[in-house]
Input
Amino acid sequence: MKETTLNGKVFEEIISKEQIEQIVHELSQKINQDYQGKQPIIIAVLDGAFIFAADLIRNFDFDHQFRFVKLSSYEGMESSGTIKYLLDIDLDLENQDILIIEDIVDTGITLHQYSQHLSVKKPRSIEICSLLSKPNALQHKDLHIKYCGREIEDEFVIGYGLDWDYKARHLPAIYQLRKDS
Ligand code: IMP
Output
């Protein structure tokens, strides 16, 4: 079992670099099929999704616009419950197809609130693509993640863009906090 230590805590590798590559490949194939002939607006959520989004969109073979938004709900290892819009997009979204790219859906509060915020602009569709999700932590059970890379346990993870207090984003694999750590 590969391990890494951060701030005195031990994290174990749960998804390798190669497995991430395979997940990204499979997700992008599905998305390519579904968006042929459409011109969606792809919205990647900063900060955590920047690496995943960069890898994913380089496999896309349909016409699209790509934007970043910056949302924040986490403080340390906990979700704060309300999201802050640190960078939003100023676009007419009426009748547009929107695909949100996220690194991880935990409680679902961020994407539930953000989807509602986008719905007001009357898009044709809003779908979510998330590399990871924690079904046991999800508070908004109606949040539909159409493209989900991998469901994981309700434990804190780092790597491949996911941070702990701005550290560990550079790790090429996903590491989970060891239960006894
Ligand atoms: P939610 O609002 O609880 O679904 O949390 C969504 C955001 O919290 C994600 O976009 C991440 O930035 C952050 N987050 C949730 N779980 C983790 C984790 O295990 N590691 C690092 N960041 C996380």
Summary: The pocket of inosinic acid is lined by residues 45, 48, 73-74, 79, 102-110, 156-157, 162 (CB under 6 Å). DSSP finds three helices and ten strands in the chain. The mean pLDDT is 93.
